[in-house]
Amino acid sequence: xxFTVVALAYSIDIVGGYECAAHSLxxxxxLNIGYHICGGSLITTWWVLSAAHCYKSSVEVRLGEHNxxxxxxxxxxxxxxxxxxxxxxNDATYDNDIMLIKLSSAAxxxxxxxxxxxxxxxxxxxxxxxxxxxxxxxxxxxxSK
Length: 145
Known about the structure:
By secondary structure, the chain is mainly beta. The protein has a domain at 22-116: Thrombin, subunit H (Beta Barrel). The protein has strands at 3-8, 18-19, 28-32, 36-42, 47-50, 60-63, 76-85, 99-103, 131-136. It has a six-stranded antiparallel β-barrel with strand order 3-4-5-8-7-6. It has a three-stranded antiparallel sheet with strand order 2-1-9, with no helix packed on it. Mean pLDDT is 86; it is low at 5-12. It catalyses: Preferential cleavage: Arg-|-Xaa, Lys-|-Xaa. GO terms for molecular function: serine-type endopeptidase activity.
């Protein structure tokens, strides 16, 4: 699977989109337990933000990835030192579906790995703002691509 992106406004389904240019979103992380399970975002050199429904007690965080099935020489593989689900996460409703992963060593920032550009405090997008959702998945609902 190669890295794909899709723009969403009011949809909860993530189908469609396109393959993005290699390494154009260098803050994206792949959570791996021998295979890719979920995506995340590098928010500092020590922390990755992901979804609580992806929880495993230990994961390998892969940074600098584009094609998760090919070693490209740009990757950093870093094990987790602690994985923290939101204390009020509800797996039936997905309320509070957020999780933090502390890396066992700091990510090395370079042209392939960087932290996500977060908004400044109290400067959040207004309701209805289009957002970019990125991760590894299918671009067709049939799963053929």
